[in-house]
Each structure stands twice: as C-alpha cells, then as structure tokens.
Amino acid sequence: MKKISYLFFSAAVVVGASANAQLKVEIAGVSSGQIPIAVATFADEGVAPAQMSAIIKADLERSGVFKVIDAGTVLSDTSPIDYGQWKSRGADAVVVGSVQKLANGSFNVRYKLLDTIKSSELSTLGQTPTPRYARLAAHKIADDIYEKMTGTRGAFATRIAYVNENRSAKDYRLEIADADGEGVQVAVRSNEPIISPSWSPDGTKVAYVSFEKRKPVIYVQNLVTGGRKIVVNEKGSNSAPSWSPDGSKLAVSLSKDGHTQVYSVNADGGGLRRLSNSNGIDTEPQWSADGQQIYFTSDRSGGPQIYRMSANGGAASRVTFNGSYNISPRVSSDGKTLAWVSQRNGFSLYAMDLASGQEIRLAESATEPSFSPNGKYIMYATKGGGRTSLAVVSVDGRVKQRLTTQAGNIREPNWGPFMK
Question: What range(s) does the TolB N-terminal domain occupy (predicted)?
Fold first, then answer.
C-alpha cells in the first residue's frame, strides 16, 4: 500500500486567524461521458473530524467528470466486494476505506479503488494525518481517484489565494483557502487595497501588491513563517508580479522610467532588469510553462493585445488578433493553452490552443483568470447579484462552478501549485 507522509504539511500555512465565512460552491454543468463511480462510507470514519467519504464525493462531483453513486453502505478497505453487484448498479469503480484513531492522536486512513469491469484493484493508499489535515487526506484520495480514472493529476488537494474586500469598511484581506473553498485563512489584512496575488512554485510564498504606502508596492508573504518583505519599491507604480517556473525570479510591471514596462527581478529583490521596450504600456507579464518566454499585455498596436517575448527580453510577437481589447494572459501548466479576457460585448473569458490558434469562449462577465495546476480548469472573478465572486470553468467550457461568500467581494484569484 502506498503511504503519504505529512511531514511537509506540518509546516504548511502559518498565517493569521481563520476567516469567519467559508466559500460556498455551486455546481452547474458536467463533462460529456461522465465516469460512474460508487463511493462507500468509510468504516469508522466518524472518529475523524472530517467525514472522508463525503469530502471525496463532493470533490468528484465538483470536477464534473464523475457521476457519483451513493453506495448506501459502509465498506472498509478489507471488506469482501461483490463486483457483479456494483457493475449491475452501473458503477465502473467502487471506493472503499477505513479510518482508525491512533494513540498519538493521528489517524490511519486507508482506501482502495476497485475496478468493477475487470474485478481488480486499481489503487490503494494509506495516510496518517493529524486532525488538522484530515480534510487534506480526503482531498488526496480524491486526487488519486481522479488520476487513476482519467490519467490526469487531480488538483483537489491544492489551495487558492484571493482578495476579500469590503471597501466601505476599508477592510482588505489576502486569504488562502482549500480548492473547495474550505479552511479559509487570512494571510494579510490591510485598510488599503491589495491586488494581484501570485503563488510561488513551491507553494510556500505569495507575491502581491499593496497600496499601504500610498502607492503600489510588491511584497512577498511567507506562508510558512508568516513573515513578509518588500521585493520591489521603485519610483512610480510597482505591479503585476508573476513567479518564474523555477521560483528564482519575478516578472513585474514598473513605471520607474516614465511609462509602464516589463522587468524581471530576483526573488530576493535584486538583479532588476528591463525586458520590454516600447512606447506603449506593457504590463501583466506571465511566464510560459518552460520559463523561456513571457506573455504580456501591451497597447503598442493602439489597443491592448497580448504579446510574447523571450524571457531575456527583446522583440515581441503579437498573439491575439480577434477583438480590439484583450488582456490578462495566463498559460496552462503544459504550455498548450492560453487563457485571457476579451472585451467583446462585455468582458468574457477565452481560451486558445496555442498550436492551432483556435479560440473558445468559456464564460461571460469574467476577469482575472487563473489555471488550475493540472491545466483542466480556470478560476476567474465574476460580477453578479451586486457583488464580485469567484467562478471555475473547465477548459472545454462544459463544467462550471461558483464560489460565493455572504460578506464582502472576493476577486483576484490565483490557483496554487501542486504541493510537493
């Protein structure tokens, strides 16, 4: 049985107090050809602070990829399985498991994924989380199921960063949450605006822009120690930080030389270097998946369009040609898909296959897109009902989710990386 260690997570997110309101997830739409899967109640899961089977079901349903069948019974990882019975109920696979409380207060969580078609075991996994990481253990099981059934790594155990703002109260919070909106923690709180959070590739830090010095300044918040530091505070505006894939540098937008251009800077704030050189405004830089190129927004052609250039700077080539207003480029982790926001009868989220140039419109009333680390979903900010909330759409446009909260406006989402 494969075992997962929680040594790394024992040092994860040391931030401020938990936020009062969790995010509520609403699901709409499903993928074509959903995979039918039965999830049984885990034996003795009531001893843990989180109900494993319920979290796993919610994750799989939220993906839109699975048709979840409630097993209606308790099945442990050692229970005998009647494969024919489950196959007759329409399940291609069955999830079973058990939870045992250990003497040190941790839990022994075991699970199996069973193939009803081949009457065989597809996967088995064992974990020993502390109570704090019980939900994470369930997300990791859902990730394993997603990967074994689809061939793509699951992203349920990842985290998101976003800004929760209440302008009338001058309350701005950079918050961290699980990908399902649970476990909200406040990383930074200010009475001045916070924008543009960006995760480091190792998931231990978030770069962001704060206006607490009465101008935009780029900070890096360490989520393990709780410490933070100013990384860029040049004359004028300092904005739009984006981490290089190896975590050694940030691409940023600075107006230090009179008009906004793209620069790179070492993660410790040294080695500032100008990359773009135009008479227009060059901003919103984003590294390509291989770190060799930088995508950015520029109005050098008369209106905002998306360009790309070498990560070392130099000549840039235009990427978007449809529509007169295209901004906020984001590149998927496999480097194959570009997402951005285009103003065509309102702001809409688009995705492009970079090899073919083919575009697809994914969502209306969308800003600030961010890819999931497996490249299968895009989170974005959207307005509706008098407030701004977060939404998620699959890259094929079929699956949609909405994450809302009862208080404040949530925006500026950034989906964190896979945890090592």
Answer: 23-121
